[in-house]
Amino acid sequence: QVTLVESGGGLVQAGGSLRLSCAASGRTFSSRPMGWFRQAPGKEREFVAAISRSGGSTAYADSVKGRFTIPRDNGKNTVYLQMNSLKPEDTAVYYCAAKTPYAGSREDYEFWGQGTQVTVSS
């Protein structure tokens, strides 16, 4: 069992930056691919970014490419989402997620955090 706790959300003006953190419990963090998703009001949850176990491989949704990054610190059991040049359309609840240890790219995420609200004002 893995518990994921997000933090760092809040209200920011368009063009600003925020860094979300996701702290994971347990001893298996470094073996788990991690991801960030978001869900805006009235919309389905969508993929934002993903990172491999070592951090050597990342992937991003086209809508955030060039603005967001997803570093991880395996020594701190934490994955981050650095969000720059924020836009009002980035407003959503952001969730981090963890896959099964050593899971491949096609496998589903196994554990989810409770989410943190990000609001970008125009």
Could you walk me through the main structural features you see in this protein, from its secondary elements to its overall organization?
By secondary structure, the protein is an all-beta fold. It has strands spanning 4-7, 10-13, 18-24, 34-39, 46-51, 58-60, 68-69, 72-73, 78-83, 92-99, 109-112, 116-121. Strands 2, 4, 5, 6, 10, 11 and 12 form a seven-stranded mixed beta sheet that branches. Strands 1, 3, 7, 8 and 9 form a five-stranded antiparallel beta sheet that branches. Strand 8 and strand 9 form a beta hairpin. It starts with a strand and ends with a strand.
Quick summary of this structure?
With 122 residues, the protein is mainly beta. 0% of the residues lie in helices and 48% in strands. It is globular.
Helix content: under 10%
What is the SS-derived class?
A: mainly beta
Gross morphology is: globular
Model regions low in confidence, pLDDT < 50 over at least 5 residues: none
What's the count of strands?
A: 12
The helix/strand order is EEEEEEEEEEEE
Number of helices: 0
Strand content: over 45%
Rg calculated over all Cα atoms: 14 Å
Largest sheet: 7 strands, mixed
Distance between the termini: 40 Å
